[in-house]
Amino acid sequence: MTTGKVPLETINLDETTTVKFEIWDTAGQERYKSLAPMYYRNANCAVVVYDITQASSLDKAKSWVKELQRQADPNIVIALAGNKSDLSARRAIDSEEAQTYASEAGLLFFETSAKTAFNVNELFTSIARQMPLEQLAANSRGRSSGSKQKGVDLTNPTPASNCSC
C-alpha cells in the first residue's frame, strides 16, 4: 500500500455545524515515518489504527501515538482505532488492553471495521466533537466571505485548519 490522500469524510454535528476531514493515509509503514511530520505538522486530529488480529500492531500504534504527542500540535485530537472488528474470532489484542492504554494516553478509542464500516462514522463524529470548532469555524469563515454555515472546510487547508487523520 502506498501513502496518499483518500476521499473526504464529512460529518454533520448538527444543523449548522459540518466538519470535513481531509484524510491522509501513511499505512503505518516505517518507510513513511520520515514523511509523517509533513502530514501531521498542522493537523487538528489524527487516527492511529492497529489491527486487532496482529499482536505487534498495537505496539506499532503506540509508537505512532508517542510520535504525535511529541511532535504534533499539543491540542491535536488523537483517536486509537482497533480495526478488523469483523474478524473478532481471530482477535490477538484484547479490547480492554487497548481501551486502558487509550484512556491512560488521553486518546479516543473505538474498535472499527473498514470492511463493514462498523463504528467508522462514530469514530469521526467523536473526533469532530472533540475538535475546537469555534476556532476552526472562524478560520474557515475568514477564507470564504459571506459563508453563514458554521463549520470547517478542509478542502483548501491552511496551517490553522488542516486535519490530517
Task: Describe what you observe in this structure.
By secondary structure, this protein is an alpha/beta fold. The chain has one domain: Rossmann fold (3-Layer(aba) Sandwich), CATH 3.40.50.300. The protein is built from five helices and six strands; from the N terminus they run ββαβαβαβααβ. The protein has helices spanning 36-40, 55-71, 95-105, 120-130, 133-143; strands at residues 4-12, 17-25, 45-51, 77-83, 108-111, 150-152. The strands form two sheets. The protein has a three-stranded mixed beta sheet with strand order 1-2-6. The two termini are 17 Å apart.
> Mean pLDDT, nearest integer?
78
Radius of gyration: 16 Å
By CATH, the topology is Rossmann fold
The tally of strands reads 6
| Overall 3D form | globular
**Main beta-sheet strand count, sense and barrel state:** 3 strands, mixed
Provide the helix percentage: 25-40%
Name of the CATH class: Alpha Beta
Between the first and last Cα atoms, what is the distance in angstroms? 17 Å
The class by helix and strand makeup works out as alpha/beta
Number of domains: 1
Report low-confidence residues grouped into runs of 5 or more.
1-5, 142-165
Give the name of the CATH superfamily.
P-loop containing nucleotide triphosphate hydrolases
The amount of beta strand, in percent, is 15-25%
Biased composition (Polar residues): 155-165
GO molecular function: GTP binding; GTPase activity
Keywords: Nucleotide-binding
Region (Disordered): 137-165
